[in-house]
Amino acid sequence: MRWAYTAEQIRAAEQPLLAAGEPLMRRAAYGLAQQILRLLRARHSRVSGATVAALVGKGNNGGDALWALAFLRRRGVHAVAIPVGADHGAAITAADLHAEGRDALLQAGGSMATHVPEDTAVVVDAIFGTGFRGSADVPTMLRDAGVTVPEHAVVVACDVPSGLNASTGEIPGVVLPADLTVTFGGLKTGLLLGEGPRVAGRVELIDVGLEPLLGETPTDQMVGVFEKDTSAPVGAVFAPPVWDAHKYSRGVIAISAGSPQYPGAAVLTVAAAVATGVGMVRWVGVTGDDGDDDSDTVSAGVVAAHPEVIAGHEADGRADAWVLGPGWGTGENVHARYRQVLDLAGQRGTPVVLDASALELINNDDVARFAEIRRAGGAVVLTPHAGELGRLEERLLTEPGADDSHGRVDAVELWRARRMAAHVGAHVLLKGPTTVIAAPDGQARLDTTGGPELATAGSGDTLAGLVGSALGRTLPKTGSGTLDTLDKIAAAVRLHALAGRRAQQYGPFGASALAPAVREVLAEVGE
Ligand SMILES: NC(=O)C1=CN([C@@H]2O[C@H](COP(=O)(O)OP(=O)(O)OC[C@H]3O[C@@H](n4cnc5c(N)ncnc54)[C@H](O)[C@@H]3O)[C@@H](O)[C@H]2O)[C@@H](O)CC1
Ligand SMILES: Nc1ncnc2c1ncn2[C@@H]1O[C@H](COP(=O)(O)OP(=O)(O)O)[C@@H](O)[C@H]1O
Predict the structure, then answer these.
(1) Interval 89-108: pLDDT, tens
(2) Any coiled-coil ranges, and where (predicted)?
(3) Measuring from atom 11 of ligand 1, which residue has the nearest CA?
(4) Are 121 and 40 within 8 A, CB to CB?
(5) Number of neighbours of residue 278 by Cβ within 10 angstroms
(6) Alpha-carbon distance 304 to 216, whole Å?
(7) For residue 356, is it left (φ>0), alpha (ψ between -120 and 50) or beta?
(8) Which ligand has the nearest atom to the CA of 496?
(9) Dihedral angle, C-alpha 333, 337, 343, 347, nearest 10 °
(10) Distance 165 CA to ligand 1 centre (A)
(11) Has 468 been labeled as part of a binding site?
């Protein structure tokens, strides 16, 4: 796992090193040049003779690119810098650029230009970096300057795409989307939130020696990031059973989901939990303890699809984790069931996942119930998408709107999830293209592994079942002692994302394809 930081945190960490004369810019530029060389080698047989053009602003971001061009020039690259931007209304020129960088480039034999040569293989976007404020329309700036980016050129953003807020992921104007972003010192949260993932392309991090200083950031301000190619602890959380396991020791997942209106939600949530391999999955209807005909239809559907499921109407049975809410709708009994399970969980310390319709039932009185569950050793996990979180905010917070007093109106997903988690004393799993998981103590994780193939009805029900399984299953004693609720939720999110990718390999799919794909992913993880 890597950590991500706001631009302000990165800039603060840089200060002592810059004051001590550390050559941060040259380290950053060297890393950028290496990444460009790698691209050139992959796309062209020869590095020497290839053209790399940088769109250079007047700040240090431009300085990075100028130094990188100087390194590339020494490797035989045709290196060209094009000043882009304005100062007091007048277009900037070479004289306005970072002086040392410009001199380094010229001394190395590079050149200044007013347009991007047609044979350019790589265009470096170095107009603005973390010093960007306000808004900018980069394509219009380029058009006004008579600069055209050739269609065949690969666009590499220096630190962040110019015009992207490096902390929040907002784009107040328009940016030039990058194929690759080479970022320096630490991963910026803006590359992972909001519009960031859409415009940053692949992200490579260059170590410039900030890590020790960033490590001093309070943990509630660091954001853990699960990298695409390393695992959130999927293997540890969804580990195979130990040799002397029995069905109760492996974990019993109790799921109250579905209604006559949405019977499929029950099947999908149950299917996900079953697919992870647990000791038992119980399905519990939302009617009174006697059940009724309507609920029996849902029950029959669940058992027909999954004969191994124990279906009934009593909440008071064995449960190592509860999942409440997928497909409940607004039936008259859901509220009683919701209250009953929260009270039971408070007495027993059972983790509870509140999804979909259950989220609509939460009010401020429940905060004390959630605290009770945590005190008893359990956890509460809310799994809203942005719309559901908005409704929670309206109901629970006195100031539901996004607060911009910290200069991060967005970081929206991160900030909103953290705020809600702290307010209600529960973990908040905020679903979307970037999934945010916030703990009540301020810690957070981001995962961008999931693709848009997951945006299909019932995919959230599947995720709720996976989170329930992660919280209720018994972990092997060895090697998993340090896994906390945040890790378990993160593992479920990652498993969901990997299942989406796996299912997609066989073509477009609906959510019922996810549970079989979960089994395939776990078979590989376990190998
Ligand atoms: N993080 C690190 O470890 C390092 C960061 N460095 C680089 O330094 C960069 C930050 O440099 P700076 O602080 O000089 O800032 P930038 O180079 O990001 O941009 C600042 C310039 O752009 C102008 N500007 C900002 N917003 C504008 C807008 N909306 N319209 C028009 N002009 C605007 C400012 O007036 C200023 O002249 C980083 O992004 C990174 O590339 C490296 O040089 C050293 C290592
Ligand atoms: N564009 C996207 N890219 C990646 N993941 C997405 C995207 N849109 C939605 N998702 C994921 O798909 C799932 C959808 O869940 P949800 O909205 O609750 O669906 P439903 O309620 O229909 O089951 C979530 O895990 C969410 O993170």
Answers:
(1) 899 999 999 999 999 999 99
(2) none
(3) 60
(4) yes
(5) 22
(6) 55
(7) left
(8) 2
(9) 150
(10) 11
(11) no
| pLDDT in the model for residue 287 | 73
Query: Are 261 and 286 contacting, i.e. CB atoms less than 8 angstroms apart?
Result: no
Q: According to the model, what pLDDT value does residue 331 have?
A: 84
User: Which protein residue's CA is at the shortest distance from atom 22 of ligand 2?
Assistant: 457
Contact 146, 116 (CB under 8 A): no
Determine the residue of 61, 183, 205 to mutate for testing ligand 1's pocket, defined as the one with the most ligand atoms within 8 A of the Cβ atom.
61
**64 Cα nearest atom in ligand 1:** 43
CA nearest ligand 2 atom 16, residue: 460
Which tokens is 313 given?
């109407």
Q: Where in the chain is the domain with CATH 3.40.1190.20?
A: 249-474+481-525
Among 57-71, 305-319, 334-348, 411-425, whose mean pLDDT is lowest? 411-425
| CATH class of the structural domain 249-474+481-525 | alpha beta
The answer on pLDDT for 290 being more than 70 is: no
- Percentage of the chain surpassing pLDDT 90? 80
* Span of 204-208, 445-449, 466-470, 517-521 with lowest mean pLDDT: 445-449
Return the structure tokens found at 451.
């693709």
Going by C-alpha positions, the residue among 253, 251, 250, 193 that lies closest to residue 225 is 193
Q: What is the pLDDT of residue 409?
A: 36
- Convert the pLDDT of each residue in 149-173 to its tens digit: 999 999 999 999 999 999 989 999 9
Q: Tell me the CA–centroid distance for residue 160 and ligand 1, in Å.
A: 10
- Which tokens sit at 119? 């044979």
Say whether pLDDT at 138 is over 80.
Answer: yes
Class of domain 2-217: alpha beta
What pLDDT does 292 receive?
58
* 434 Cα: distance to centroid of ligand 2 (angstroms): 10
Q: Cα of 459 to ligand 2 centre, how many Å?
A: 6
Tell the residue nearest (CA) to atom 9 of ligand 2: 455
Pinpoint the residues of the chain covered by CATH 3.40.50.10260.
Answer: 2-217
